[in-house]
């Protein structure tokens, strides 16, 4: 398997034989993203137990947050 940016075909002959999966065409991706972004309320209703994760943090912090959201933590004394 080759990737045009990260793992290009080694020779022009091989590159000429390559085909792109129709599901990966830009129009199809745009349709999928529009469908996803157009239905946030339906998704929230369907996944009512879901929680928001801020993944713009250290991976350990993200893991700890997900773990604590899945496994109910013990109550702490204040």
From TrEMBL:
Keyword Transferase recorded: yes
**Keywords associated with the record:** Kinase, Transferase
**In which domain of life is the source organism classified?**
Eukaryota
Region annotation (Disordered) ranges: 1-24
InterPro entries in the cross-refs: P-loop_NTPase
Q: Which GO-annotated molecular functions does the record name? A: kinase activity
Instruction: Give yes or no: UniProt keyword ATP-binding.
Output: no
From the record, what ranges are coiled-coil? none
What is the designated name of this protein? Adenylate kinase 8
Organism of origin: Fulmarus glacialis (Northern fulmar)
Q: What is the lineage of its organism?
A: Eukaryota, Metazoa, Chordata, Craniata, Vertebrata
